[in-house]
Amino acid sequence: SLKAAFTAYAHQFTQASVRYSFAGSDMLAAQIEQGVRPEVFASANTSLPDLLYSKHLVSKPVTFAANELVIAVPAKSTRIRTLSDLERPGVTVAIGSASVPIGSYTREVLARLQPTSRARIIANVRSQEPDVSGIVGKLTQGAVDAGFTYITDVQTTRGALKAIVLPSSLQPVVAYGVAIVKGAAHPAQARAFLSGLLRGAGRADLMSAGFLPAPRNS
User: Fold this and answer.
1) CA nearest to 149, candidates 126, 168, 124, 166
2) How confident is the model over 44-85, as pLDDT tens digits?
3) 3 state SS of 122
4) Neighbours of 115 (CB within 10 A)
5) Which end of the chain offers a freer environment for a tag, N or C, measured as fewer CB atoms within 10 Å?
6) Contact predicate 178/48, CB 8 Å
7) pTM for the complete prediction?
């Protein structure tokens, strides 16, 4: 979900040449646990950076952005207009796998529904993807009718998808955490990169991509 904003930020970051590895946050965290040493780890949740911090693998994480969970559907679709439409027989839905942030947030939403509604939606799930790009891909290919993803990922499709807003009572707190990886080769540049996410060009690129400011209580 950070690909568009971070790619734009890289063009403005003059302290170093930036290379990215975009994947599910859980996969990236697992790579760090296995010995991979990027300078910076950014995650679509705060629990994974906190986990790495507890294992002394990263510096103390900070929350740098927020996002909004939505139901995404093809732009020309008229079949899905509300969350309750996902309960109808024959509707197909894509969600994130349980181990990735988008999947965890989606399950928070489903857990707040009445048991009957939750069961009907789960029965319509046809795909559990390892990251948001997989969900977007299923939607743009016409493989499913709807998917739970972030509002920013809908915006990056440039009109191919549209977002259906969830009721505020169901909206999870979608907070993004970032930390500097211990033992990385370029700690000074990593600190500069992180600083730009909090109050510089990186923050501006995040806001332009549709991200929200970090929750105040984070």
Assistant:
1) 166
2) 999 999 999 999 999 999 999 999 999 999 999 999 999 999
3) helix
4) 8
5) C
6) no
7) 0.91
